[in-house]
Backbone:
């Protein structure tokens, strides 16, 4: 009985041990249980159904064993331990009995040992059994199906022997005695060890440098890698709204249980926008493994990029993928591959840049054979689905748009890359500049320029700033507002490095004009690449687009990391965003781009009906041929999100700021003005169309709009143009009362764009930005539009006291500002005091939500004090803020004086019975409070009795919420009868 209880208490841990390790581990537990006769044959079959999630089978096994009683439970513990290798000893095999029925029993009794003994010999045994007529060819083929590992084949062979009544069991036992003992666990230790060493050396060399750093900078990844914030994406379908958001984890934790949403899946998905650091994070993971610093549970790590997979135009098998595309084993290929298949849990496969894969994820074709070739995309999809190399861990990186729900089904955990923290930005700059003086000045410069600071959260922008530090320190950063400003800066930087003598600093044509032919050639290649989903270019393609050595020497095209370093290795743009930037240049200044293309960039962008693979069966090896690939067709075929990045740059290049630069670069016939007016028209129309698509408001309610990613992109493009007049025109006539931009990846840069455009709204708006990553810097960027905000929702946005300081000054001074929702951020007593100070001069705020912060007693005191004679606040939420007696006392005093507050929410704090007496004193003198929420505190019957006193004389209070406190069911019944306003 004791064991059964203990067993039940250990259940979740046992499920973990059985389900989270390999299938091999689970099956060897079953072997022991069968051999000790804990499981009947029928039990065994019910827990070894192929295709069922391991966790389901594990739970079923625990149920079966528990029902059998204490001794079986004890044996299960022993089996788990044995299978996990705690008890490595295998019993020696002796002579067997000569009788067939006893032989069947012997096979079962010694199953674990026999499986270990024969797993490396199954093929030869099968041939022998076939030859002797014990098994048919059909039976042999069923046993040797390629989806099974060697041990599984061994088990299937034993299962067949059990049911065949033809002497096979006896024959098998005799044969087994003569078999040589195979070394366990490695079939060929030396070959595997050598392969691991070679793989580590290869991966280490590949991961040493980043492509954005050329040799001259002499910066190894080891020296510059800066921690990127990794946030766990919740399973929104299960998501409890009150769950505290922004759970983060460290790189070292990405394979553990934290944040796991599907125990049966093997893929960790890393999601982030372009430039958020996905490839670099993966590279760091490879480096840490290859240099023996972390992730040593894996014996083999195979890095791939989707660019590389895309370039494979011939069918490949898993074996050729691993060996030919990644690292070739110098000896024992078959043994090494067998080992990989038999120990999938020791293998990690990484796939970078799923968004760049031109094939969309599908479950249409199933492929289970690791040795049979299939298309690269089919191979990838089946690896992700677990049809191939089940239990191998996989890491997949992607921009968000490429992840579809059918792929999410196979995701073990999903992590978003949030970029650098504020401290991270500083650390990054210091790592880059060994000269402390330079680093100090650069850090100060970034901090002092709010728009720049906002951009630097995105690693690729931090890289640009760091790379162009000389220019910035010399000329200041005041001109850096938009993304286009950043990319122009880096363009000028590269040009000046390539030919320092003929380039002077400045935005004048002298900077770019001499290099215009190069820029246009790169631009044409870039656009062609986007239109054919090609991100790596062969020497032949470069020749075909006229890109010569001099163009290459500028440094924007670098040897592709997805291919082995050879002289003929294809090249790629330093970063996808740079490819889009050059494409934008071409769209603006290319001789064959007429203004009609603009519409395609900004709105009429439709994918062609034919799927790309058919149109471009060998895209990577084709050459750009502008006659056939008109600009329009390329734009239509390009990935929407790349077109959007290009559009943002195009708008930026057409800003007033850069007008002189582009006009001086153009040829005589380039219709720049026409293009500019088209962009303006498309943006204004696009935004209006978006607003018009919102259903009409229900009479009596405000018109509400939920923004889609397209809306954020249009806003960003408007911001890049920096045209106040256009922004005004685009939104001034729009009627919307509530603008919801939740879960839209809004960071500081997007906040700046939103403020730039929305400040022109004629009607006050409620701006809902919950569940984004606005942060303190983003709050600052929002300030310009606060004058049109009636309400601001910033729940779950990583805002700290610093952000509150920035907000309060401005928001609480606006006459029409009524609602501020700051739930689930990092606001402490310091922020609460700042808010309190702001409230003293404010007479408009009606709703203040601080749920899920940590203002504590001190913060509650400050706020309470400020509300003594506040006349507009009706609703205050301090739910879950660590408030105890001291805070409650202050709030009670506030209730004595305050005449406007109608609802006070104090759930999930530390309130006790004594605090109820304090509140009663306040409530006795109060005549405005209608709802008091006290659920989930530490109140007992005694506290409620005190509250009842005041209810007798107070008719204003409509309800007091008390659920989740300490009452017996009888007390609840009794108290509810005493006053129906008490809600339990
Ligand atoms: P993504 O793959 O998300 O597009 P990358 O990993 O290519 O982004 O990052 C772009 C550039 O930003 C890198 O080349 C590197 O210069 C810089 N970078 C990104 N992440 C980091 C990091 N964690 N530490 C240092 N630099 C980084």
Residues:
């Amino acid at each position: 009985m004791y064991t059964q209880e203990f067993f039940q208490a250990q259940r979740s841990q046992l499920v973990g041990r059985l389900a989270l390790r390999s299938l091999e581990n689970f099956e060897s537990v079953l072997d022991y249980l069968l051999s000790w006769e804990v499981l009947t044959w029928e039990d065994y079959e019910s827990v070894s159904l192929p295709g069922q999630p391991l966790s389901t089978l594990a739970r079923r096994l625990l149920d079966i064993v528990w029902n059998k009683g204490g001794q079986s439970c004890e044996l299960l513990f022993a089996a788990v331990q044995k299978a996990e290798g705690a008890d490595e000893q295998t019993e020696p095999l002796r002579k067997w009995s000569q009788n067939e029925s006893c032989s069947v029993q012997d096979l079962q009794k010694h199953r674990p040992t026999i499986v270990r003994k024969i797993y490396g010999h199954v093929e030869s045994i099968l041939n022998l059994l076939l030859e002797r007529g014990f098994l048919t060819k059909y039976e042999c083929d069923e046993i040797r199906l390629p989806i099974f590992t060697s041990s599984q084949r061994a088990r299937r062979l034993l299962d067949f022997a059990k049911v065949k009544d033809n002497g096979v069991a006896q024959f098998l036992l005799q044969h087994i005695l003569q078999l040589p003992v195979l070394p366990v666990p490695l079939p060929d230790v030396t070959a595997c060890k050598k392969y691991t060493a070679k793989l580590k050396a290869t991966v280490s060399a590949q991961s040493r440098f980043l492509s954005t750093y050329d040799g001259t900078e002499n910066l190894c990844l080891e020296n510059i890698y800066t921690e990127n914030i990794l946030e766990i994406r919740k399973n929104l379908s299960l998501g409890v709204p009150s769950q505290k958001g922004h759970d983060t984890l460290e790189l070292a934790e990405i394979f553990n249980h934290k944040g796991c949403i599907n125990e049966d899946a093997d893929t960790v998905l890393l999601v982030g926008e372009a430039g958020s650091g996905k490839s670099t994070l993966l590279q760091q993971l490879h480096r840490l493994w290859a240099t023996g610093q972390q992730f040593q549970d894996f014996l083999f790590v195979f890095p791939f990029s989707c660019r590389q997979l895309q370039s494979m135009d011939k069918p490949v098998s898993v074996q050729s993928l691993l060996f030919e595309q990644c690292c070739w084993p110098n000896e024992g290929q078959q043994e090494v591959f067998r080992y990989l298949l038999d120990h999938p849990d020791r293998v990690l496969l990484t796939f970078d840049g799923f968004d760049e894969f031109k094939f969309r994820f599908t479950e249409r074709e199933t492929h289970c054979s690791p040795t049979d070739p299939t298309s690269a995309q089919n191979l990838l999809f089946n690896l992700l689905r677990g049809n191939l190399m089940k239990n191998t861990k996989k890491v997949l990186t992607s921009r968000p748009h490429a992840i579809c729900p059918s792929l999410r089904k196979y995701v073990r955990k999903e992590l978003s890359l949030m970029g650098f923290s504020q401290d991270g930005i500083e650390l990054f700059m210091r790592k880059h500049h060994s000269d402390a003086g330079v680093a100090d000045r650069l850090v100060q410069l970034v901090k002092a320029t709010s728009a720049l600071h906002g951009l630097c959260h995105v690693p690729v922008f931090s890289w640009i700033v760091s790379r162009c530090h000389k220019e910035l320190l010399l000329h200041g950063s005041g001109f850096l507002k938009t993304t286009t400003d950043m990319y122009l800066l880096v363009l000028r930087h590269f040009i000046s490095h390539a030919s320092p003598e003929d380039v002077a600093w400045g935005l004048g044509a002298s900077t770019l004009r001499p290099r215009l032919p190069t820029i246009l050639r790169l631009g044409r290649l870039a656009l062609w690449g986007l239109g054919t989903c090609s991100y790596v270019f062969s020497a032949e393609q470069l020749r075909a687009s006229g890109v010569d050595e001099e163009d290459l020497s500028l440094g924007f095209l670098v040897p592709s990391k997805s291919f082995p370093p050879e002289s003929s290795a294809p090249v790629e743009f330093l970063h996808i965003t740079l490819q889009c930037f050059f494409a934008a240049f071409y769209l603006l200044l290319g001789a064959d781009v007429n203004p009609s293309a603009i519409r395609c960039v900004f709105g009429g962008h439709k994918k062609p009906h034919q799927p790309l693979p058919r149109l471009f069966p060998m895209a990577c090896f084709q050459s750009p041929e502008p006659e056939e690939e008109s600009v329009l067709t390329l734009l239509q075929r390009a990935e929407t999100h790349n077109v959007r990045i290009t559009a943002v740059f195009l708008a930026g290049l057409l800003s007033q700021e850069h007008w002189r630069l582009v006009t001086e670069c153009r040829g005589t016939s380039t219709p720049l003005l026409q293009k500019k007016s088209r962009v303006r028209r498309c943006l204004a129309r696009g935004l209006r169309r978006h607003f018009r698509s919102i259903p009409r408001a229900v009479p009596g309610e405000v018109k509400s709009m939920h923004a889609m990613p397209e809306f954020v992109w249009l806003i960003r493009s408007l911001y890049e143009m920096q045209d106040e007049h256009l922004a005004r025109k685009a939104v001034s006539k729009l009627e919307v009362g509530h603008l919801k931009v939740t879960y839209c990846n809004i960071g500081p840069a997007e906040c700046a764009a939103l403020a730039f455009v929305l400040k022109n709204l004629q009607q006050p708006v409620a701006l809902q930005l919950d569940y984004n990553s606005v942060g303190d810097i983003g709050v600052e960027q929002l300030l310009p539009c606060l004058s049109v905000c009636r309400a601001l929702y910033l729940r779950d946005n990583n805002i700290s006291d610093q952000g509150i300081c920035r907000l309060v000054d401005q928001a609480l001074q606006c006459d029409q500002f009524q609602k501020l929702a700051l739930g689930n951020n990092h606001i402490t007593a310091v922020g609460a005091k700042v808010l309190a100070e702001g409230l003293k001069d404010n007479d408009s705020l009606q709703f203040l939500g601080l749920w899920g912060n940590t203002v504590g007693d001190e913060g509650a005191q400050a706020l309470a004090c400020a509300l003594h004679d506040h006349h507009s606040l009706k609703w205050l939420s301090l739910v879950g803020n660590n408030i105890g007696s001291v805070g409650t006392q202050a709030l009670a005093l506030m209730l004595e004086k305050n005449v406007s507050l109608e609802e006070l929410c104090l759930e999930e704090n530390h309130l006790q019975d004594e605090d109820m007496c304090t509140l009663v004193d306040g409530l006795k003198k109060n005549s405005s409070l209608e709802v008091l929420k006290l659920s989930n505190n530490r109140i007992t019957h005694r506290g409620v009795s005190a509250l009842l006193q005041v209810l007798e004389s107070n008719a204003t209070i409509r309800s007091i919420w008390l659920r989740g406190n300490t009452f017996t069911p009888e007390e609840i019944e009794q108290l509810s009868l005493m006053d129906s306003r008490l809600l339990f």
In short: Residues 210, 212, 224-226, 228, 272, 274-280, 428, 459-460, 463, 575 surround adenosine-5'-diphosphate (CB under 6 Å).
